[in-house]
Write a structure and sequence with these properties.
four-stranded antiparallel beta sheet, eight-stranded mixed beta sheet
Length: 338
């Protein structure tokens, strides 16, 4: 990518707590190209949401320290004032937040909240903003959108609120859409509608999408590239086809191995990655995944760099010899099925 739309360089996020400083994101760097969908996957607590909240400058400044650069179209967002950031949020970069139950203002109608954002960034009349809000509510699958415009958040289910949040994020046709678990509370039919809506936005405006999710099926369907995070670091990154067909990191093997497969015998129980996720307050030295990795060895006491092991754009952070990984991956899958 010669001209990335969003370029995050050596991002490090530290939270101040009563127990001391906790590093939630540790040296993350990646670029998002124009008209690209990047999927970010990993267990809860791996730093996915914190990374993108940092890019939006939405972390509390009193308790969070941000280091590194977040460049959007050449401008470092970490150096902008709050007034300048308010012009960027919503119109240039928008976010679908993970928790729809608490993301809407409970004292205003949901349609009014969407229309307010439209009028804050576009020079349109109140009537035009209302029409745009109703159109978006219908597009995300809310029936009788004109009537539901005046409903308050407590009138809606969790899934309906999630759809309202998606409509709000799409209201100003942002260049970058950050979708944090956008389909979690939705049934499969509405999930398909939302993914179609995201594709349509991308086709109409050339928008780029950062999709944070636990659903590897959604990633396989819509993402151009995949970024796997663990304990605040990127452990693997590459084109979606390469990640699914030839994953290189043991953590990615575990994530993919936990998915039920139709082309293999039905296991007695779903497989899981052994152990517990690394704690951000007590991250191990060296490879962050070594405590849970069945293939760890002495070299894992030194932190591996995220680098291409086979050339090209497929990167991983693992010391295992490249030529041995296919056999180790198959052995890990066979052991899990046994």
């Amino acid at each position: 990518m010669s001209e990335p739309l969003l370029d995050i360089r050596d991002l490090r996020v530290t939270f101040r707590t009563d127990a001391g400083e906790v590093v939630a994101v540790d040296g993350v760097s990646f670029a998002l190209g124009a008209d690209e969908v990047l999927g970010i996957v990993g267990e809860s607590g791996s730093g996915k949401s914190v990374t993108m909240l940092s890019a939006m400058r939405l972390l509390p400044e009193r308790s969070a320290r941000l280091e590194g650069e977040v460049r959007y179209r050449g401008r470092d967002l970490t150096r902008l004032s709050q007034r300048e950031m308010r012009r960027v949020r919503g119109s240039e970069i928008a976010m679908i937040f993970q928790d729809p139950m608490t993301s809407l203002n409970p004292v205003y109608p949901v349609g009014w909240q969407i229309a307010e954002q439209v009028r804050a960034h576009d020079d349109v009349s109140a009537a035009a903003a209302r029409d745009r809000a109703i159109e978006l509510l219908g597009a995300v699958g809310i029936p009788d959108a004109a009537r539901r415009f005046d409903d308050y958040p407590h009138h809606l289910s969790g899934g309906m609120r999630q759809r309202v949040m998606i409509a709000m994020a799409l209201s100003c046709r942002p260049r970058v859409l950050i979708a944090d678990e956008p389909t979690t509370a939705l049934d499969v039919t509405i999930q398909a509608q939302i993914l179609t809506l995201i594709r349509d936005l991308r086709a109409e405006t050339g928008s780029s999408v950062v999709l944070i999710t636990h659903d590897m099926g959604v990633v396989a369907e819509i993402a151009d590239r995949v970024q796997v995070m663990y304990a605040g670091r990127i452990v693997e990154q590459g084109p979606t086809r390469a990640i699914f067909r030839d994953p290189m990191h043991p953590y990615t093997w575990g994530l993919l191995g936990s998915i039920a497969r139709l082309d293999r015998p039905r296991p007695a129980r779903l497989t899981a990655i052994a152990g517990q996720p690394a704690s951000a307050s007590d991250a191990p030295a060296g490879c962050v995944f070594k405590a849970r990795c069945p293939h760890r060895f002495d070299a894992c006491d030194v932190a591996p760099e995220l680098a291409p092991r086979r050339g090209g754009s497929h990167l991983d952070a693992c010391h295992l010899p490249v030529e041995r990984r296919p056999a180790l991956r198959e052995g890990t899958a066979a052991a899990a099925e046994a």
